């Protein structure tokens, strides 16, 4: 479903006016639930760490006519979506690249050529892969429930731990994040670190250093507090029943 800039602007203005704590600014991020929407968390955190001024439109997923609401902002039917002036962008990596091109303060990839290629590669791997993990261990920040992953999910967990351990071994002396300083690669993996906390997945050193950095981050903690205050409950996620875990 396509929308004109004018109709989108009116839609956002109406929503923002119903949220007095939010000011009307040029960047608008469309998100799902804080508790359940991992891709929303990624972009919100990216914008926060980039020190960019933005407003949020939250659409609780699997509630009421939520699909039609999301479709007013993007033909993909998924969140997050970023409206940057007259430009609408969807899909996490596309949004990050758009922000990097148009906003000088946007969080950048590592500066070294090899590190930059490495960071982009593992970010793309996260973006397109780990389907069993994302299905069996959906984001649920309010929950603490140890689980026994399937063999395929365990293989994907092991691959993630390999990625984190390799990065921390190579770049750990530079700082607490995967490449020392925070980069888009960290943003891509933050929700997975929180999933491991939710489901009691053991994370050995040095990979656990990344999990520790995530849990200590002020913006991540702010997002979790918002998740704890939400009232929506998705039974198929809470009870780990099959469902559309990847919508947001």
Fill in the keyword field for this structure:
disordered N terminus; globular; alpha+beta; four-stranded mixed β-sheet; single chain; 248 residues; Glutaredoxin; 4 strands; Glutathione S-transferase Yfyf (Class Pi), Chain A, domain 2
Could you explain how this protein is built, in words?
Mean pLDDT is 91; it is low at 1-6. A hairpin with a 2-residue loop joins strand 3 (81-84) and strand 4 (87-90). The chain is built from eleven helices and four strands, in the order αβαβαββαααααααα. The protein has 248 residues and is an alpha+beta fold. The chain is globular, with a radius of gyration of 18 Å. It has two domains: 5-102, Glutaredoxin; 113-216, Glutathione S-transferase Yfyf (Class Pi), Chain A, domain 2, CATH 1.20.1050.10. A four-stranded mixed sheet has the order 2-1-3-4, sandwiched between helices. The protein has helices at residues 5-17, 38-49, 66-71, 92-102, 113-128, 131-136, 151-171, 184-198, 208-216, 218-229, 235-238; strands at residues 27-31, 54-58, 81-84, 87-90.
Count of separate DSSP helical elements: 11
Oligomer: single chain
CATH class of the largest domain: Mainly Alpha
Number of extended strands: 4
Separation, N- and C-terminal Cα atoms: 18 Å
Helix content: 40-55%
What is the fold-level CATH name, i.e. the topology of the largest domain? Glutathione S-transferase Yfyf (Class Pi), Chain A, domain 2
List unreliable stretches of 5+ residues.
1-6
Mean pLDDT over the full residue set: 91
